[in-house]
Amino acid sequence: MTYRVVHRTEYRYDREVFSTYGEARLHPRELPGQRCYSTTLSVDPFPEEYRVRRDFFGNRVAHYAVLEPHLDLVVTATSLVDVQGRPAPPPGTSDRPWEAARDRLLSDPDPEAREARQFTLPSPAAAGSDVAAAYVADSFPAGRPLDEALAELTGRVRADFEFQPGSTDVDSTVDELFARGAGVCQDFAHLAIAGLRALGLATRYVSGYLETDPPPGRPRLEGADVSHAWVAVFLPGWGWIDLDPTNDQLVDDRYVTVAWGRDYADVPPLKGVIFTEGDSHQLSVSVDVTPVDDEETRRAMA
Amino acid sequence: MTDPTVPAVGAPYEPLPGAHDDLVAPDGTLRGPWAAVAPTLLGSGDLDRRSVEAARLLADDGVTYQGAPTGGPGHRPWAADPVPLVLAADEWATLERGVAQRAQLLDRVLDDLYGPRRLVRDGLLPPEVVYGHPGFLRPADGIRVPGAHQLFLAATDLARDDQGRHVVLSDRAQAPSGAGYALENRVVMSRVLPDLHRSAQVQRLAPFLRALRSALLSVAPDTDDVPRIVVLTPGPWSETSFEHGYLATQLGVPLVQGEDLRVRDGRVWMRSIDRLEPVHVILRRVDAQYCDPVELLPGSSLGVPGLLEACRIGNVSVVNTFGSGVLENPGLMPFLPRVAEVVLDEELLLPSAETWWCGEPAARHHVLTHLEGLVVKPIARGAGTTTQLGWALDAAGRDELRRRIESRPHEWVGQRPVAIGTAPSLVEGALAPRRTVLRTFAVTEGEGYSVMPGGLTRVATRPDQLVITNQAGAVSKDTCVLAAEPEHLTGFWLQPPPDAGALVPAGPSTSPRAGEHLFWMSRYAERAASLTRLLRVVTDRRNEFAAGATPAGVASIQVLLRALTAVSGTWPGFSGDAGAGLVARPDDELRSLVVDELRPGTLAYDLRRLLDAATEVRDQVSGDTWLVMGHLDRELDDLRRRAPLTPDPILLGRVLQALIALAGLAAESTVRDGAWRLQEAGRRLERALQASALLRATVVDSVDTATDSLVLESALIVAESIITYRRRSRSRARVVTALDLLVVDPDNPRSLAFQTRALRAAVAGLPGPATGASTALRRCGDAAELVAAADTSDLGHLDDGGRRGRLAAFLDDLDDHLHRAADAIDAEHFTHQVPQRSVFTPNDPGRR
To answer: Is A110 within the bounds of a domain?
Structure first.
């Protein structure tokens, strides 16, 4: 499926902002099973500085600076992405006992496996949590196949926690999620990350988009989509298995991958520093993930 | 021939059992290098006196470690042992090779870790050692420092083991400190022990400063400009702020804080009071994590937003580079010998303390089963974990430590304890062996490293102490490397620089922040001086009229007490009806006016603010000025300690002397640049305000002829104009003569006319605003014109109510102009940093 993704973020400030220095991780990655035909970013007011680079994890990062006074700032990313045939682990890989993945990771001389070992360590926004470790360990009895254990885990997360936008913020910890019993996608991702890492499984945080279906019989609403986050677990000898604890499913062709890192703090869609006497702002985000079925567009892309 | 036995200095010298001692061999004879220096050093027999002398010199230079140099909570003077650490030429040559090799090795590791990471991929370093260390900064990936090396300055902490071999205890690479202290120690010790330094041919440290300077130039990006270097400091409250200012001064480069810099066009610019200047090299003393709130620690206000991106583009070089802190990980130590063989094709010359990294199962097992015999260290400093001595823990403590290691094994190492060797130190008047740790410094030089001949030696304060750090209260020693052959004297400035002309950039730079501190420094100095003078006069008058027999004397004291309140701005104080009680019994209030450091307007407060402002601009303040500041600091300490009941005339005299010396240095020893003009403007503005307040409090209201006369005389004494007044007062009415002298006389450097004209001249010499005319200059002009047009006969006119209303109105107008001028100077020259905030957008709200 081919999608047009429009991700618009607007900051409205109560007082004039004299300058903004920021980073955007909004350009989708190129992956097996994901092609990014085009991706552009616009910043309004026009930024005096704008450069795109790849970060440590290979994500595309746009660095921008707006150095004239402004009362609002709009960053819009527009991408055309084709997701098709995301590879899935073949039989004889993820259906083996989960301990095999853990043990092979430590002995595998493959550079990719050695690099993946950094994702077994606690990270700033997904610090070690005894509660999360115990919660996740319940799905990983000795000898259970990895895919089965992961599927059970995502099912439990969906059943045990309430999905509640606005219940947490970007600094919420895993322990707070347990205390509250409700959270959003990044909280569920951090929970899975903290628990899986405690088992010795390399787990990373992935940010991106999910195409959503309108309720039956209703038209698609513009701006109704959102950015999303899930996790990926490394299976030595094969690669990363992406799964979505928020929706209890494996990541498939309806997901668009933008960036990954150890946790949210490595890949926020936007982050930055502003200079202002004011102390509050209003944030509005709208995301549209629209399937493109127009033949002409597709031919143009091909 | 020298006597091969230990010279008797106080108590007998007994080496610690099991530790190598620098002075005495096991057979009781003096070791080699000491045979050469012991007679000179120990023969004089007055080490105690020299120790006191060293402490005084260090205090005069304002040398401190940890926190506020001027009496803040963390205030700690730098302590130095007069007995140096002495190293023989041949032993040093070996050590130097080892130190340089270690720097080369760590450089190659650093180069790889922020580049291809082959060491990790190919299995020479476990991924967890690198990726699990908080010093590994992923945003630094791919940032390159120009030149042969990524590691700019390396420091190595070394101790002798029981065999006397030097062993590496730890590496410092994030932003190593100590080189400046080592240089300052040498400066002081060569003054305290001149004989030693003359006779024993100690290798000089000055060339290291040159090497540092050349190294800074060598890492500058390609530029058509003369490379501009700055030292980036977190500010005067940092532990090692003395050193930041010291290095900036010695290198002749600006000392800046994050807010002085900004990124624009992908370059770093320094805001100076008259221009924006490009910055090419930053000697970084702000911890890497705090340097860029966009990419590193959000919320840090010590850094510069966009700095990493400017480094990535290659327009600025920051040294040590971001992420070099990963090299401080003791978990790397077990792997270094093998890495040296592979990347350098050399054997590692300096052994590290034997170390087991707990991330490896076998090593972890060893540590967990030998806890009681090991030093257990977290791989990173801070974060609530400290080094633990296994044998000092009880069973419960060891269990707790075991649990912590098992839950995050990669974050711990165990080290075999080194029986840290001792060196002779002066302890309570006698020589005694104390454990010492030597920190060496190596700076990039061409393809190799230049090693400081010596280093910073720290000495344990107790015989049993094994953790020897400045945080733990260690004292320092000069480190003397003996020269193999007589050395040619070299001073930093004696030799032509490598690229003559490229060294001194166009004109010194003063940031708006520094400018503001300089302005306020002189304002507080003037306030303190004027208050001190008035306090002295009040004290004298009270002594004179204490008996109360002279009604005019008593009345004049009352007027002067109220003047004290007015001049110091410590209302209500002696003023008003409420003040009448205080006027009757003034001792408590007078005491408060002197010693109450937290009450704005008091002498102690003014001095404190003066010293704080000076500390903020260390690099702009000359050595002699610092000497005077040192005196003031001690007077302030004295005030705090003794808290005299009444103003002590001797103390007031000493304070005044120091303040006069400061003004003299500003007048006679300061180049007339923008920084000086700001100081001058502050001085003139404040002196005019003080003079105005004094006149208002003493001349406006008339009591009776006798009282007025005594008050006027006192005011003239405070205004330093009494002698001239006496010479002139024959012809005209007394008040008008005084006003002639204090208001309009253009030749009296204490008159209002003089202050306002000098103020205008100083402000006229400052750069104007980018567009339009300077408001500050216009306001200063208004003040000068008001004073110039004053008619003293008119101002002296006494109303029917016994009041000089016209004088009062004139002074009110003048104050108004002066306050507006001050506001305009502030607005035009001290651009205040707008507060900085961090913003994020979440991956939120997600969707089901």
So the answer is: yes
pLDDT tens-digit series, residues B146-157? 999 999 999 999
> DSSP string of B698-765?
HTSB---HHHHHHHHHHHHHHTT-HHHHHHHTTTS-HHHHHHIIIII-TT-TTSHHHHHHHHHHHHHT
- Residues B447-472 have a mean pLDDT of 86
Interval B634-668: pLDDT, tens: 888 888 788 777 788 888 999 999 999 999 999 98
| Residue A30 and residue A105 in one domain | no
Number of domains in chain A: 2
Question: B120: which chain A residues are within 8 Å (Cβ-Cβ)?
Answer: 114-115
Residue at B199 is within a domain: yes
The pair phi, psi for residue B222, each rounded to 5°, is -60, 125
Give per-residue pLDDT as tens, B817-843.
Answer: 999 999 999 988 887 778 888 888 776
Torsion B400-B406-B407-B411 (CA) sign: positive
Domain span at B81: 55-330+435-481
Are residues A245 and A124 part of one domain?
yes
Q: What is the mean pLDDT of residues A31-36?
A: 94
Asked if residue A278 and residue A253 are part of one domain, the reply reads: no
Which of B266, B840, B845 is closest, CB to CB, to A166? Answer: B845
Q: Are A244 and A206 in contact (CB under 8 A)?
A: no
pLDDT over 80 (residue A146): yes
In a domain, A25, yes or no: yes
Alpha helices by DSSP H, B341-411: 361-369, 395-407
Q: Which phi and psi angles does A239 have, rounded to 5°? A: 150, -155
Residue range of the domain that includes A56: 2-83+267-296
Global pTM reads 0.88
Tens digit of each residue's pLDDT (9 = 90 or more) over B497-518 = 444 444 444 455 788 889 999 9
Q: Is residue A88 part of a domain?
A: no
Same-domain check for residues B586 and B690 = no
| Closest-approach residue (CA) in chain A for B118 | A111
A299 min Cα distance to partner chain B (Å): 32
Q: What is the DSSP letter of B58?
A: H
Please indicate, yes or no, whether residues A117 and A237 belong to a single structural domain of this protein.
yes
Crossing angle of the two packed helices B805-829 and B512-545, in degrees rounded to 10: 150
If pLDDT is split at 50, 70 and 90, which confidence band does B734 have?
A: confident
Task: Give the CATH number of the domain where residue A50 resides.
Answer: 2.60.40.2250
A282 in contact with chain B, both atoms CB, cutoff 8 A: no
Q: What is the mean pLDDT of chain A?
A: 92
Q: Give the C-alpha separation, A169 to A222, whole Å.
A: 25
Tell whether B713 and B582 lie within a shared domain.
no
**B128 to chain A: closest CA residue:** A118
User: Do residues A152 and A246 share a domain?
Assistant: yes
**Shortest distance, CA A166 to any CA of chain B (angstroms):** 7
ipTM given for this complex:
0.95
8 Å CB contact between B383 and B421 = no
Q: Are residues B610 and B689 in the same domain?
A: no
Supply the pLDDT for residue A117: 97
d(CA A293, CA A1): 8
Contact between B125 and B339 under an 8 Å Cβ cutoff? The reply is yes
Same domain, A72 and A120: no
Asked if A213 and A76 sit in the same domain, the reply is: no
Number of structural domains chain B divides into: 4
Q: How far apart are CA B627 and CA B58, in angstroms?
A: 10
How far is B557 from B559, CA to CA, in rounded Å?
Answer: 5
